[in-house]
Specification:
The complex is a heterodimer of chains A (about 725) and B (about 350). Chain A has about 725 residues and is an all-alpha fold. Chain A is about 65% helix and about 5% strand. Among the domains of chain A are: about 140 residues, no CATH class; about 210 residues, MetI-like (MetI-like fold, Orthogonal Bundle), CATH 1.10.3720. The longest helix of chain A has about 30 residues. In chain B, helix 8 packs across helix 15. By secondary structure, chain B is an alpha/beta fold. In chain B, strand 1, helix 2 and strand 2 form a beta-alpha-beta unit. Chain B has two domains: about 150 residues, 3-Layer(aba) Sandwich (D-Maltodextrin-Binding Protein, domain 2), CATH 3.40.190.10; about 140 residues, D-Maltodextrin-Binding Protein, domain 2 (3-Layer(aba) Sandwich). The interface between A and B is large, with 95 and 91 residues.
Chain lengths: ~725, ~350
């Protein structure tokens, strides 16, 4: 038995006998005694909460292997202890709620209302985790995953987290798709809602009526997916394969949209292209182009989403393009292939996983986007806004929202399946331990030209949009009154000096601090869980792997509004009662953004030859050492991508958090939404520029902290120096 | 083997630390607290919060959301309510909540000081919600655009059908906005259901966009994105006060109105404080704060001074709005699906 197993058995006991089993009532002030021993499950159990005492049995079962550390049957004991423990903790948690028995059958047989208990606290969480790990160690001892306890535990932990924070809330809300308004099972009503013409109608093909919202969404998603992938690829090629002079600038600029809070791009586009927009005015005055409202609808949403999501494609693709081994391209050239042929038949196919992932992310992001269709959608309706207003609008029809969510979910999963089918079983490994000191080929001229032609106008356009945003923050009222002012910043971020020090009296400070705190906590957690999952998916083989992968993607596919409402429904009552805390916000972000970590991790890992891990394992390192010393350093681009992405998304997400914020944990975006609703665009834009600055600083800090991946390759610009060295002797 | 637990342990540890820091931060609430969901503009919400704290010493935790969002949240939290009081926001979701019994009955000693419409709201909801302000529906137009496009001054609902205003009127989608639903119900009540729908179909030809949010047309007018827009008059007044070239119109045929309401959440953890707030919010001193925070609704306490910028209810022909009928979920569903089928999908 390993020391790790022993440690978890001890932790199981600590959680049960020392730490507070229940969360604290929010109106009470806990004393030190509540934190230790007296609030523990053991004391509660003795004092009358008899249903906690059976948990002692699995805890004792876990002690058997401790007494006889060398017995062959230890695996079995650990499995029994873990399984029984988990079952008991879950069973008592769900059976006994805040108001007594939660199931009718229990109420009928034991009398209502029955005993009651509050939501679980740290002790319960620790004990449950310990049981889970003990179970996984037991399985490893029985030979699962080649007996690697680290791998089984990782799989167990990730599955448990996904079940608790994705499947549990999502099933809660999707169940309401099949219920009528009184909560009864009504499959017919589901069918009526599902087959509605406003969802699937195809009238726009034959007449000038509108098409169903499902087709609209799908069409927009495809356009955005293709567009972002193409633009992202152009940027990635320029940034890695050319000697373009303003590469750094290009990188910063292409990252700008991703760190822009929602609504802002939409507002900027209106101020540029709207009927009274700056550019429309110029076109009218100079060229007589009549002012129109073309920006409201598909074109506007498409432009805004391309602006917003191209950076994601760029972040995914840059790691992939960097990772392509020049060896293969050199081989192709040695065989006399033209540079265009090489690009088309070697380089591009090697980028397939990256392209597929970039497309998938663009497509899914477009489906889930809420802010841009809200501001620019006009009469072009998409599922995400429709779902939001089914929940909060005048209809207040949660069942309809659930039906629409199911459709949205089906689209996302369909894209995921297609991607798998396209990538197939081909091998994309290009980072190997073998001699690999080539110089990446310069791009063929046509490709370079095409990249410049797509990327540069787009870059200029991005600059224009951001110039508008910057101006908007410093004038009294954009579009009407261009008097320069600092008024918006003062309202939001005033700091006063009082007797006892600085006093943050601006109205935005509370939400600002809360947002930074939540984002800073959720980013590393997201990256860790995401990359761990990616490692398990690419490097380990276990049964149910596809289902596992599907589970990790699920939370990304579900629209934010649905996630928000489902989190309230699932986590507002015991056993897991965390609404109103900052913890629920962190968890929401971690599991919504984890798929990006997983995706970029998979894309990067599938390029790294397994023989590197195997060499490390052969030399006697364990799998966690291999991960730390070999895999993680090679994963740096993926780490940066997922850290940056999750930090940024935590600061810019709207629809998911709108139901989860509280007075203590108000988020910047909900504050901005309020400002936009009130028509205070100036203040909204000013706050957004501050957020953009904070995120820029954070991204630079993340890049510096993680560092760049150093592959044993010379870069194209450094190429002349070896020649010079040769010439000297 | 020893090192294998590192990553898992680190992840777990980080998770636990997060939990510790957050849950304990959430616990640090003293006795004498009040959790409020606020449904009006942020500034007004803040003014109410600080004024009540100063007056009673009760610490208020306020969260601002739109009325529909508050309703969705209160409903989702019904099994274990988080909030004590829901103040502000249009009356429909308050009525809906009252109908579903997720808010608490209460009769305030201040009921006698209130306008009739506020008391009627209270009676119709069987004591579960009370009116705190009201605002009439109307429309406005951008004076600069109207002058350059030679559109006369629209004065009545009927004027919005003029062919010169083709693609120049903006209004919200009643499926997503309570404001637009109020318009739907108003038109049906003024003209009768058949004639009313004829009107809405004719209006459809002039509508350039059905926005999601009810106040959006007011902003679009101010920015010059649309010539005319239908919204609550106080929302348009806010733009006028902000010096936008916009004029507010009270339609000559008469118009409907909303009653901004207040409800106590059933199962409130701080019920006594919620009642204290309820009584206080009905006083003239508390209702004065609206105008100071640039919200120009008409307050429900008779002795509250009506802000000078506010549209005078006496100058507006208000219809006898049947909140009980048009606020019920059955009638709402019927009208909305009728509008969806007969109006929204029409070709332009």
């Amino acid at each position: 038995m390993s020391r790790a197993t022993l440690g978890w058995i001890v932790l199981g006991w600590v959680g049960f006998a020392l730490l507070p089993w229940y969360g604290f009532d929010r109106t009470a002030v806990p004393t030190l005694a509540d934190y230790f021993v007296s609030g523990s499950a053991l004391i509660h159990g003795i004092k009358g909460a008899w249903w906690l005492l059976p948990i002692l049995i699995p805890l004792c079962l876990g002690l058997v292997p401790v007494i006889r550390p060398l017995a062959q049957t230890n695996g079995g004991w650990l499995i029994a202890s873990g399984l029984l423990g988990l079952a008991l903790v879950i069973l008592q948690g769900f059976a006994i709620g805040l108001n007594g028995w939660t199931f009718d059958i229990l109420r009928a047989s034991f009398g209502a209302p029955g005993p009651s208990q509050a939501g679980m606290g740290y002790g319960a969480a620790l004990t449950a985790t310990a049981f889970l790990i003990i179970l996984c160690h037991g399985l490893a001892a029985r030979g699962w995953c080649r007996g690697d306890a680290f791998v089984t535990s990782s799989i167990g932990v990730v599955i448990a987290l996904i079940v608790v924070f994705v499947f549990f809330p999502v099933t809660t809300i999707l169940a309401s798709a099949f219920a009528d308004n009184d909560g009864n099972f009504a499959p017919y009503e589901f069918l009526v809602k599902f087959l509605d013409r406003s969802i699937w109608g195809l009238d726009c093909l034959s007449s000038d009526l509108r098409c169903g919202v499902a087709w609209n969404t799908l069409f927009l998603g495809l356009l955005v997916g293709v567009g972002t992938t193409a633009l992202g690829l152009a940027f990635a090629l320029i940034a890695t394969r050319t000697d373009f002079r303003f590469k750094k600038l290009l990188r910063v600029m292409s990252v700008l949209p991703i760190i822009t809070p929602p609504f802002v791009i939409g507002l900027a586009l209106i101020l540029l292209f709207g009927r009274s927009g700056a550019l429309s005015a110029v076109l009218w005055d100079w060229f007589g182009v009549p002012r129109s409202r073309w920006i409201y609808g598909l074109p506007g949403v498409l432009i805004a989403q391309l602006l917003a999501f191209t950076p994601i494609a760029f972040l995914v693709l840059i790691g992939v393009v960097q990772g392509i081994s020049p060896t293969l391209e050199e081989a192709s050239q040695t065989l006399r292939a033209k540079s265009w042929t090489t690009f088309w038949t070697v380089t591009l196919p090697l980028m397939r996983p990256g392209l597929a992932n970039a497309f998938l992310l663009g497509f899914v992001e477009s489906l889930a986007d809420f802010g841009n269709p809200l501001v620019l959608g006009g009469n072009y309706e998409v599922l995400s806004t429709k779902i939001f207003f089914a929940v909060v609008g005048a209809q207040q029809d949660q069942g309809r929202a659930a039906v629409l969510s199911i459709i949205l979910l089906a689209f996302t999963l369909g894209a995921f399946w297609l991607q798998h089918a396209w990538l197939g079983k081909k091998v994309y490994t290009t980072v190997t331990g073998k001699g690999d000191a080539g110089i990446p080929l310069p791009l063929p001229r046509r490709v370079a030209l095409a990249s410049y032609l797509t990327a540069l106008p787009w870059a200029i356009f991005t600059v224009a949009v951001y110039a508008i945003i910057l101006v908007g923050a410093f004038v009294r009222s954009m579009g009407r009154d261009y008097t320069p002012t600092f008024e918006h910043f003062l309202t939001a971020f005033r700091v006063e000096r009082s007797g006892s020090g600085l006093y943050f009296s601006g109205s935005a400070w509370d939400s600002f601090f809360a947002t930074v705190k939540v984002a800073a906590l959720s980013a590393p957690l997201t990256a860790a869980i995401g990359l761990l999952t990616a490692y398990l998916l690419t490097r380990q083989r276990f049964s149910g792997q596809r289902a596992f992968e599907f589970g990790t993607l699920l939370s990304f596919a579900i629209p934010g509004t649905v996630v928000g409402v489902s989190y309230i429904l699932a986590f507002n009552v015991p056993p897991i009662e965390i609404t109103g805390t900052g913890f629920i916000l962190v968890m929401c972000f971690v599991f919504r953004n984890m798929p990006v970590g997983v995706r970029s991790g998979i894309a990067t890992l599938s390029q790294i030859d397994k023989s590197l891990d195997e060499a490390s394992l052969t030399l006697g390192a364990g799998s966690s050492t291999t991960m730390r010393r070999v895999v993680l350093p090679l994963l740096r681009p993926a780490i940066v991508a997922s850290l940056v992405y999750s930090f940024v998304r935590a600061m810019t997400a709207v629809s998911a958090v709108i139901f989860l914020v509280t007075a203590e944990y108000n988020m910047a975006t909900t504050y901005i939404v309020g400002r936009v609703e009130a028509g205070e665009f100036g203040l909204a834009i000013a706050y957004s520029t501050v957020l953009i600055l904070v995120m820029l600083v954070a991204i630079v800090a993340i890049q510096l902290a993680v560092g760049e991946r150093r592959l044993g390759r010379r870069s194209a610009s450094a190429a002349p120096s070896p020649v010079a060295v040769q010439a000297i002797p | 083997m020893n090192a294998k637990k590192n990553l898992v342990a680190a992840t777990m540890l980080a998770g636990t630390m997060t939990a510790l820091s957050f849950v304990s931060a959430g616990t640090a609430q003293a006795q004498g607290a009040l959790v409020m969901y606020c449904g009006v503009q942020e500034e007004w919400c803040r003014a109410m919060t600080t004024a009540f704290e100063r007056e009673t010493g009760i610490k208020v935790s306020m969260t601002r959301k739109s009325a529909g969002e508050v309703y969705a949240q209160v409903k989702a939290e019904a099994a274990n309510p988080r909030a004590d009081i829901w103040w502000g926001g249009t009356g429909d979701p308050h009525m809906q909540a009252a109908e579903e019994g997720i808010t608490e009955e209460y009769k305030s000693p201040k009921m006698g000081d209130l306008q009739d419409w506020a008391v009627r709201q209270w009676e119709q909801s069987k004591g579960r919600t009370v009116g705190i302000y009201s605002g009439a529906l109307g429309f406005g137009y951008n004076t600069e655009l109207a002058a350059s496009n030679k559109i006369g001054e629209p004065k009545c609902w009927a004027d919005l059908l003029k062919p010169e205003l083709k693609d120049e009127v903006q209004v919200a989608d009643p499926n997503s906005s309570g404001t637009a639903y109020t318009l739907l119900a108003t038109i049906v009540q003024i003209m009768g259901e058949d004639k009313g729908f004829e009107y809405l179909k004719a209006l459809h030809k002039n509508v350039n966009q059905y926005t999601k949010s009810g106040a959006a047309p007011a902003k679009a007018m101010a920015l010059g994105e649309t010539t005319a827009g239908i919204a609550f008059m106080h929302d348009i007044v806010t733009m006028v006060v902000d010096k936008a070239p916009v004029k507010v119109v009270a339609p000559c045929e008469g118009t409907g109105y909303e009653i901004g309401s207040m409800s106590i959440i059933k199962g409130a953890k701080n019920l006594d404080n919620a009642k204290k707030f309820y009584d206080w919010a009905l006083t003239a001193d508390a209702q004065k704060l609206g105008a100071e925070a640039k919200s120009y609704q008409v307050p429900s306490n008779k002795s509250t001074p009506v802000p000078p910028q506010a549209p005078k209810l006496s100058d507006i022909k208000l219809i006898n709005f049947d909140f009980a009928k048009y606020g019920s979920s059955a009638e709402r569903k019927r009208l909305l699906s009728k509008w969806d089928n007969e109006v929204k999908n029409l070709p332009k």
